[in-house]
C-alpha cells in the first residue's frame, strides 16, 4: 500500500513575470513597469486624438470611442503579461516504522520460565505476555519513543500474514480500511475517520487471537480501562468488538494455526517497500512450521533492494526435545545355577549426544497369591510382580543406588548386582576380584546414528540371584509371620 499523500492546488499566475527579463540581472517584475508605461502612453495619446475629434463628431461619441480604444489597450497589456491558472500537484511522503508480531500458538501458549512453589506454571508469563509487557511498559517507552519521530504500522501473522494492519499515530490508531480513508481525504473537504484511543486491552486482544488461551483471554468489553490517547471509550470498544469478530473468522480459517516467519515478513516488505520505512521490527520465537525454504532468500534480497533494515527480536529459549528409549533387553535363553551371564540393553537417545543418563536394572519375580474374589467370595490365584532387592556395588565394593552412563560409543558396562559375600560361601580372592572387575573404565558416549544409540551390559550371577530370591522370600515370610503375631496380640488385648 502506497501511503504517499498527494495534494492538488490551483493558483492564478502571471507567466510573464515568472520568466527571466531579457536584460540579465534585472528582476522580471520590471515588466509591470514597462507594460504600465506603454499602456499609460497609449491612453494619453488616445485621449488627445479623440479630444480633437470631439469637435466634429460630438463629445459623446468621442468619449465612447475613446473608452473603447483604452479598453483595447488595457486588454493588450493584460494579454502581454500572460495570465494563467496553474495547477500544482504536491506529493508528501513521511517515514514510518513497521512492527510485525508472531501470534501463533508457540508464542501465546509456551512458557519458558521454570515454576516454583510460590509461582505455579499457570501463573508464569507466556512468550507473548513478555512481548506485550515490553511494548507497553512505561520503563521501556517502546511505542511512545517510536511515535515521537515516526508513525507505526503494526502487522500480525501466524500461518500467513493478517493484512488488516494497525496504524498508530499521536497515541491513536486506525484499522487498515480507515487509514486508507484518512489518506484519501488528504487535501479534500471530506472528513477522515477520527481514530481510536490507544488501548492496552485492544492490543492484548490483538496479540492473543485464540480465545482458548487460559489467562490470555481478552478482557470483556465492559472492563474498566483508561485510554492512553484521545478518543471515545465507546467507539474504541466498538472497534474492539469488530476486531475480535474478524479475528475469530481468521482463526477458524486456520490463519493462526501454524507459523511462517519468512513468508509473512516477506509479504510485509512487499506491501511497504514503496513507503519510507525506517525499519521492520519482528517479534517472534523463530519457530516456523509452514515456511517456504526460498522465502528467506527472497526476504533478504527484497530488504537489500529496498534498503529496509530488518530487526529480529527473538523471544524464548530453544529447548530440544530429548528422549531416551530402551529398545531391547537381551538375556541368555538358558541359565545354569553356576553361570555368570550378561543382560544387554540397547538404548536410543534423541538429542542426547554426550549427555549423561542413569541406567539401572530392576529384577522382579512373579509370585502367585491366593485371595478371595470380592464379588463371588471364592478363592482365586493372582499373579503379582515383586521386586528382588539387590543393591549394585561400585569398584570399591560399596553399595550404590544407580550407575551413571554417558550415551555414545559402544562400550560395555558391567555392574555387579550383589556383594560376593551374599553368595553364602567364601570366595577365593581371584573370584572376588573377578566379581568386581567388570566396572567400565571409560564412560560410553553415543556413536553416530539416527538416532544415536548405546549398548549397556550388566554382569549377573545366577547364584547371587537365587540367594537374593531366597532372602526375599524368607524376609517376606518373616514379615507375614510377624504381622500374624501382632494381630494375635491385638486380638488378645
Give your account of this protein's structure:
The chain has helices spanning 15-18, 30-57, 59-80, 105-108, 127-136, 142-147, 176-184, 200-207, 233-252, 261-272, 293-306, 429-436, 462-492; strands at residues 5-14, 83-92, 95-102, 152-157, 161-169, 172-175, 196-197, 276-284, 310-314, 323-330, 340-350, 356-359, 364-372, 379-387, 403-406, 453-461. It is of the alpha+beta class. The protein folds into 3 domains: 5-89, no CATH class; 95-314, Rossmann fold (3-Layer(aba) Sandwich), CATH 3.40.50; 323-466, no CATH class. Strand 4 (152-157) and strand 5 form a beta hairpin. It is rod-shaped. The termini are far apart.
Name some characteristics of this structure:
493 residues; alpha+beta; Rossmann fold; seven-stranded mixed β-sheet; 13 helices; 16 strands; 24% strand
Query: Given the helix and strand composition, which structural class is it?
Result: alpha+beta
What is the rounded distance between the termini?
94 Å
Shape: rod-shaped
Largest sheet: 7 strands, mixed
Please report the number of helical segments: 13
Quaternary organisation? single chain
Sheet with most strands: strand arrangement: 7-6-5-4-3-8-9
CATH topology of the largest domain: Rossmann fold
The level-1 CATH class of the largest domain: Alpha Beta
Into which percent range does the helicity of residues fall? 25-40%
Which spans have pLDDT < 50 for at least 5 consecutive residues? 213-230, 391-395, 397-445
Mean pLDDT: 73
Number of strands: 16
